[in-house]
């Protein structure tokens, strides 16, 4: 693998400034294994390219986005930032498109950088946060005081896992459903170690729909690399429902045609307590 180019390092600077609201030489040093002098040089070269994008914060010894900040390297899709936050990996080479592959383009769910900056601080510093949230069940924005501990990708969407003082429970919140400007509060007392559904490992057992003939069942067993006709997947208790949803396993009513159902859950009784859809 070749070294990251100036373009990718500038893109990384923009990524952190946009989504975290800050950047300093140490961030580049950790990410690219550069010297402090090299890191400062890349920040300065970015400033020369876009002199109106960054302002220096003397009190925190870092750069922040200016009021007129404009994106030049990254999109408004939070996925790139969240994927980096999850893996720590930043692409070393510019993205290239192969003529032999294609990818389904999924509509981007809008996430405000102002909201993301507050949520990231709250997670990292284990702080409570006051933020507005709207959902299909409650379309009008309602203020929620949350104690978040993790960002979670559940297929096509990112959620925030947090203790909700209104619900008095740990819940999942869709990032694109937050509204307004969050207010950081004091230290949280409800942390990840108190989240039972988060800390409980649950094994889901799946098998081909028994209504399928042996030949069709064998195809699914090969597709999913099943052992003795079953697929065992272990995940967190709070993620069981999302797992079944992504695999299109209906736990309420079997589809009328086994070819559409394909998979069934073998140990439904064992996992039922983790299903929030009944």
Automatic annotation (TrEMBL):
Segments forming domain DNA-binding transcriptional repressor CapW C-terminal dimerisation: 201-268
Pfam families assigned to the protein according to its UniProt record, in alphabetical order: BrxR_CTD (PF26107), WHD_BrxR (PF26109), WYL (PF13280)
Domain annotation DNA-binding transcriptional repressor CapW winged helix-turn-helix: ranges: 7-86
PROSITE patterns hit by this protein: WYL
Residue ranges of every copy of the WYL domain listed in the record: 118-179
Protein name in the entry: Uncharacterized protein
